[in-house]
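Pair request: fold both.
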Amino acid sequence: MLGEILSYIYSGTLHVSLDKVQPLYQAADLLQLDYVRDTCSSYMAMNVEHSTCVDLYKFADVFSVDVVQKACLKLIHRNFAEVASSEEFCSLSVNQLTEIISHDELDVKEETTVWEAVVRWVQHSREDRHHHLSSILPHIRFNLLTSDDTAAILEHPLVREDPGSSDIITNVVRRGASNMKPRFGIGAEEMVLFIQASFNRNWMQGINPRLGKYFSYSLAEIPPIAGATVTSDNDIYVLAMKSREQMSLLLYNQMTGVWEQKSSMDMFPVLLTHQYFLAVNKDLYYLACAFGNGSRVYRLKKYDLNTNEWQECSRLKVSHSGMEPLVSGGCLYLLSSSELHCYSPKEDRWFKRTPLTTRDDPFWIGIAMGTEIFCSDMNFTFVSVYDTETDRWQQLPVWDRPHEDEDIDYNANFFVFENQLHVFLDNDKSDCQHQHVIVYDRCEGVWRELDATLPDIDWDCPPVVARVYLPGVQDRCAKR
């Protein structure tokens, strides 16, 4: 490690890899080389994955590397069942274990998952760890278990060998839910979200069309919203207008119901005709169409989570300004009736792809699902699907309308819910109120109508889908 540091001092170049980043950080910390230490911590934070999260968390805990610790805890909380089944999980210290299981953000469907993880950890070295059980048990939310599950745990050999453990469990159950919230995974549910600014007021609305659940509340505490998106980590972000020249990036903390400011971004100093906010996997992008000197150029910025900075990416000249941006297969697509462009984040380049030129009808709506892009006209008379892997278009079967609806002009809107393609069709004419929610059955190749009625929602705002912690939403709605 001293050789690596000397090489950096003389050359200005630092070579970091997973196998040596931890001892390199230790050496830099000892020698007070801030740049090397910061580079190592950023590298570790960027390489937090399922296979590395426990090892990096233990290291970050010992050396108090906050940015790495937070990244590791975030991944562990959201993938707890998988991480807890790994061999590395059993190498945690008792303090590290209790730190993890004490958080509300734990994404588990049932509290028994937490109990089973603790049992596995204790039994990995039973003689050395069994005496820690009494200090671990208060962090398990036994009040969230059924009476049958609690009875089974009280009969478990680990508990029966220690009478004090039975008392702890009984006391937690007796106290009830007054001091212990449901975990995120217990209270979370997939919802279609509409986050928008309307009449100088911000709103967030959510629907579950299958269960008929719905919520709506004002976001009056934040500036007007310009765009909203959800990352693959289920983080809900918005871009809000801070001023005419700047936007604020806000992250929604689902457990507290608070919008947290992450950064500010300078807007492009040109006339913008369209602007969008999108997530490509875990990365955030701001896309805007700039018009000037008779040309239309799409400009792109990427938000770096580790540096908390925005970086400008490659530009794209186009013939049309009103193109539809979509995210599919880890790439960004821009689609119109005559053009299709693909942006590769890895290469920071735009590529031309085969456009939708087989139809005279202009498409109205588009949406991506997996590695496919679906588009249709406003009246939903055709559906075309583009395969991003083969660069080919094909037509899907059309919906078999009810006889009484044949002459009705619909407004169609796509949304993806529970990994299925949905279309919401409505008609605003006062003498003919019609509404349909139809789902595409991919196996059968047919459209089926869903028995669901959606509330009055402004579909001009593209919806996003996220798992939402409903107890937090309900508590916020009750306060308002």
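--- second member of the pair ---
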Amino acid sequence: MHRAASRSGLRKLQSGFLRRFQSTLVVAEHNNDKLTPVTLSAITAAAKLGGDVSCLVAGAQCAKVVEQISKVAGVKNVLVAQHDAYKGALPEELTPLILATQQQFKFTHICAGASAFGKNLLPRVAAKLDVAPISDIIEIKAPDTFVRTIYAGNALSTVKCNEPVKVFTVRGTSFEAAAAEGGSAVSQEVAASPPVGKSEWVEQNLTKNDRPELTSATVVVSGGRGLKSGENFKLLYDLADKMNAAVGASRAAVDAGYVPNDMQVGQTGKIVAPELYIAVGISGAIQHLAGMKDSKTIVAINKDPEAPIFQVADYGLVADLFKAVPEMTEALSK
């Protein structure tokens, strides 16, 4: 009994010792005007490691972003690199910058959100550092022990990482966003790396939409193959407008050409965790569930009572969506 207690105490002491000497670099995702919400979740994850949290803001004329992140609670330092080569956040251009920053400051951890940005960038950084990256972290148990999702988010794996530098992405829906106010980080310029020139950012065309952003909306209405056509998505648009909701889609609906792929929710699409998620005509494949199962309340509408979506739904309605959805929209109009 005494030996077991001693070993337990030793492990706690070692864990506390490790946390005290950690330093984490969070690579900020932004559009040169404002932070992407997943960065705030990554900052929360970094704070759980203990030690200092620094954020790297790389871009072109990104002073607004620097000002925002300087106020985020938990951030001690903001490292700023500005150059035209960082337009579009191309991983080929950002990787040398992160490597140079790492060489200068010797961070024990480097992380970003598990978005297309983070998943495209950090594996390159890890390869250059000759370490193995870890993706989709949902829990941090210790500075060297992480829990991540595997198999389309339907299984978990606990990973102990002995790499000299831990490089990982965190699932934004698993960590609360850090408070946007209350911090007083110190900012400093870091030298921009010479342009690599292997790729070039040409332009970005954004779909103009008055509805909330899919990944940050408190209510999301998503449609699947059951809608039968892109024109029928108007039923969801009308419902969403009454609820100030974002509109998403399953991979099946996107593959069928009903809607553009930036509306896709799922393992290979966007990960969402709204207060309310309404799945309309969606069967509930594992790939889709991986992108929305962390939603606070899930409502499913499907005419098939055996649809897998009902297994995760808090409320289920077995009905013809072409009748049920217009009735819901009409009820909200009263």
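Observation on the second member. Residues 271 and 291 are 4 Å apart (CA to CA).
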